Amino acid sequence: MASSNHFISFAIAVILLPAVAFATEYVVGDDNGWTTNFDYQAWAKGKVFYVGDTLVFNYIAPNHNVYKVNGTAFNDCIVPPDSEKFTSGNDKIELKTAGNKWYLCGKSGHCSTGQKLSITVSNSSAPQPAPSSSSAPAAIFFSVYQVFIALVVILGVVNID
């Protein structure tokens, strides 16, 4: 009976695995990291951020930091006392809710020289990448395999003892 339970668990995992949305990890500023004199709005342009994605802020601590602020603080380059602060130099911030998000460096003069980021996070989940033409046969096989496993589980055709 234990073997049968393991098989059913495995079959369910195989069936559901492709349905899981894949979150994206964005390194803010790419190779430039989190620094002054960089256009983070240009970096973010064209990117679509989804709930579940992660922003990674790479910088040399304690030369920089990251504050999660509101829109007014972002525009004015100020850090309200209740702002969430990150100081590790490799800060990973998961985007947990949809809407506008604002981040800035709280070091004196850094925000005014461009070290700030504003993004909009979409409420929908990230789209699945379409299979390329070279992977289409594998995708078809995998789909047929999933259907077969589902039928085996549903119909109880296999008796493992």
Helical content (DSSP H or I, runs of 4+): 25-40%
The overall average pLDDT, rounded, is 82
Instruction: Count structural domains.
Output: 2
Structural class: alpha/beta
> Briefly, what CATH class of the largest domain?
Mainly Beta
Low-confidence stretches: 13-20, 132-136, 138-142
* Cα gyration radius (Å): 23 Å
Q: In the CATH hierarchy, what is the architecture of the largest domain at level 2?
A: Sandwich
Q: How do the strands of the widest beta sheet line up side by side?
A: 2-8-7-4-5
**Strand percent estimate:** 15-25%
* Major sheet details: 5 strands, mixed
What is the H-and-E element order?
Answer: HEHEEEHEEEEH
Helices and strands in order:
Blueprint: H1 2-16, E1 25-27, H2 40-44, E2 49-50, E3 54-58, E4 66-69, H3 71-76, E5 84-86, E6 90-94, E7 99-104, E8 116-122, H4 136-155
Parallel strand pairs: 1-3, 2-8
Antiparallel strand pairs: 3-6, 4-5, 4-7, 7-8
Helix pairs in contact: 1-4
Subcellular location: Membrane
InterPro entries: Cupredoxin, Phytocyanin-like, Phytocyanin_dom
Main location: membrane
Overall description:
This protein is of the alpha/beta class. It folds into two domains: 2-19 and 134-155, no CATH class; 25-122, Sandwich (Immunoglobulin-like), CATH 2.60.40. Helix content is 29%, strand content 22%. The protein is built from four helices and eight strands, in the order αβαβββαββββα. It has helices spanning 2-16, 40-44, 71-76, 136-155; strands at 25-27, 49-50, 54-58, 66-69, 84-86, 90-94, 99-104, 116-122. The strands form two sheets. A five-stranded mixed beta sheet has the order 2-8-7-4-5. Helix 1 (2-16) runs antiparallel to helix 4. The radius of gyration is 23 Å and the shape is elongated. The chain starts with a helix and ends in a 6-residue tail after the last helix. It is a single-pass type I membrane protein. It is found in: Membrane.
